[in-house]
Give the backbone structure.
Amino acid sequence: MKPDMRPHFIVGNWKMYTNAAEARQLTKAIVDGVYTMSMGDRASVAVCPPFPYLALVGEILKESRVALGAQNLYPEKEGAFTGEVSPTMLLDLGCRYVILGHSERRHKLGESDSFINQKVRVALAAGLDVILCVGETLGQRKADQTTAVLDRQLIQGLAGVSADTLTHLSIAYEPIWAIGNLGHQATPEQAQEAHSLIRRRFSQIFDEKSAQTLVIQYGGSVKPENASALLSCHGVDGALIGGASLNAGEFLAIVRAGIIEAQKKGRSA
């Protein structure tokens, strides 16, 4: 695949927000908005609601152009794991995607690279498409540790992953210092530099062909106001969106920006 011919992948991560009525209203608005867009094969869209609303949202998404994703899973098919959710349960509800290694789970809930790796391998083996999140803290960036942190998260997070499953894997770069923090937004140049680093490391772990087809999203306070600038960057193949995905108008504006920038890249490739 030629550089920048990769489709843009726009994902909404609703985190622990919405109630049933809000989830229903938001999903319908997104489905209706995406229906009017001309995406072709240049973009794809998914939403990841909280576990209690997966079935509700999934029912509305049926036959639509928006895929269903989950925010996490436990790396076992079944068992005595109170409060956890298995990959087979997610598939049963119609999930195609699952977010793993999100910074909030790493830093607030203490998930290790090895545990995240278990999840990645189990999810891929079950047939789910994985969005693996990586990213550094502000302290790590200031200490010039960004490369070391991303290397560790990629090498350990992808250990034992079969090359045959890589078409079902995408990476989301989420600089933790830029998430929900208007005082420390990443510039397009910083995003592009990190994405280039991730792709280069991925090529060393696997091979150059796999690295060139790998979709790498950016996640970190993506808004309609900065979406075009970020998504126009070489090597930035989409966005993992938090807060803005809870507003249908804002989310759809970012989807639109993703489609437009993907089309521009396609013409220039």
